[in-house]
Amino acid sequence: MTESDEAKKAADAKLDEALEESFPASDAPAVTPAVEIKRQEVNMPYKYQARPELRPMRLTGISEQQIAQHWTLYEGYVKNVNALNEKLAALTGKGDFGLEFAELKRRIGFEYDGMILHEHYFGMLKSGQKPLGDDAELSKLMKDSFGGYRKWREEFSAMGKMRGVGWVILYYDARTGALTNHWINLHEDGHPAGFAPIVVMDVWEHAYMVDAGVTGRPSYVEAFLENVDWPKAEKMLGDARGSKMTRELHESQSSA
Ligand SMILES: [Fe+2]
User: Fold this and answer.
1) How far is the CA of 119 from the centre of ligand 1 (A)?
2) For the chain, percent of residues with pLDDT exceeding 70
3) 231 CA → ligand 1 middle, Å
4) For residue 135, how far is its CA from the centre of ligand 1 (angstroms)?
5) What phi and psi, each to the nearest 5 degrees, are found at residue 171?
6) What digits encode the pLDDT tens for the residues 68-105?
7) What is the CATH number of domain 61-256?
8) Which residues contact 92 (CB under 8 A, 6 or more apart)?
9) Domain-by-domain residue ranges, the chain?
10) For residue 66, how many C-alpha atoms fall within 13 Å in the half-sphere facing its CB?
11) Contact yes or no for 234/136 (Cβ under 8 A)
12) Distance between Cα 143 and ligand 1 center (Å)
């Protein structure tokens, strides 16, 4: 037997000893340790917290009262994501994958997207904004993708004024390197998988009812666009372009 064989044998013996301590033969679990570890992991879902650092203040054309009421709804999504994850972990822990599990799994996309999109939205709004400069990378890409900022804004605004509740999102597509505007029904329907959000606008009625009433969406859309934090949008574009997925896509396309 070589030295390395002996070392391996000693390591195996140590592992057997540790497993015996964790799972004594008298009450050994019906599952293997590997499965047990996975179950422990899913029984400890991550707890999300609302992110106060994203809450905007002193916006132009969107009041503090409007933001305060909207923020309360966002906190509700955070709470519901945590509650759903806990319920699902309990069901998974019991191995109960019946109707309740299925319905909660269907529901969770609504709550998760409700939480995440509101974080993008609030984090996108900042007081004292200047227009997007012509030399910004985002501005150059808008020119390639839409014919310029004005043309992009025309389409984005028109989509924001469409009937129905949901979101309008400017997305970056790593495959083509282009930007496209998308309509999202509710919170979860219509996202192009793998695209990166750059500008995220909420057009549910609760986003403008306090300030402008049921017919106030057109003025709200214009107010939103006046408060977009363009340096942040520019950074999000830079992050998306530099992401691992984008780099790998471009490498595979150039080597094809
Ligand atoms: Fe909202």
Assistant:
1) 10
2) 82
3) 23
4) 32
5) -115, 150
6) 999 999 999 999 999 999 999 999 999 999 999 999 99
7) 3.55.40.20
8) 39, 42, 43, 101
9) 61-256
10) 24
11) yes
12) 30
